[in-house]
What does this fold into?
Amino acid sequence: MRIKALVSASLGLALIALTALISMSAVKDLPVGIAKFVSHPALDDIERGIVDELTATVPGVRVDLQNANADMATAAQIARKFKSDKVLVAVGIATPTAQALASAIRDIPVVFSAVTDPVAAGLVSSYQGGGKNVTGTSDMTPVAAQLDLLTALKPIKRLGHVYNAGEANSVKLAELVKAYCDKKGIQLVESTVANSSEVRSAIQAIADRIDGVYLGNDNTVFSAVNAVAEVCLQKRLPLVTADPTSAETVPVLAALGFDYYQMGRATGRIVARILKGEKPGSIPTYFPDSPAEKSLVLNLDVAAKLGISPTAELIAQATSVVRNGTVERRKK
It folds into this structure.
């Protein structure tokens, strides 16, 4: 009886081990390629949000993180790599990277993130539905609200705007900035760049002819946003940007825009839906609109250096306040 019991126990353990092995082998390997155009706080936060969402909700997901380092040739090379590796979904963070993926990959789902105008960028034909294999999230930034914020902090007669004329998203935002200035009677002074090494000289070229500076969500400029902030402090110019993420560490006066980590989570949810069988063409472009997906950062230290006194109401509205070198974050 004792031998039979031992044999039975051994068979039981073997069966448990076999079941565990079968269960482990049943977990699929789900490769997902994620490429960002350049490394800066906003795009890094999107990448982190996508990875966190996928690892939390999709068993077996395996991510390949790539960085184009603001180089279109590298972005194209990454797209070819994802295609060759047969990833199940290719994710492009920022317009240039998403365009490179969509151009090279036609038989694998492509999901874009932080693309200001995916229709103008040629990624989808309509916001209501994706392309044949393309869909994603937009960061169509609230330009009018951001410029209202700047002009509320200081009256502006001549506005400086630096952007990369080679980025489709930046060209679209430049049109919105011009329309705002025309409506408000503000003189617009533009300075364009082709790469991040030109950003400092671009802002220096117009600094003596303007009263304030606005930066939209331009990937090239934001990779050198420190240079813009330094020049603005030297010239005592208020700087308002569309990137709250970097505004917590870079000395800008204020920033109003999206919580890019939450945008990454939203992008990850779209990727998860596709991995579970949904077709990209049936998924409309996602536009963040909830309060939890937006942030307002106000730097009172910079305001003091510029001789600007934000109202108590504005300070109360901020989701993050920089005061005495410390970031005070508030619940949304």
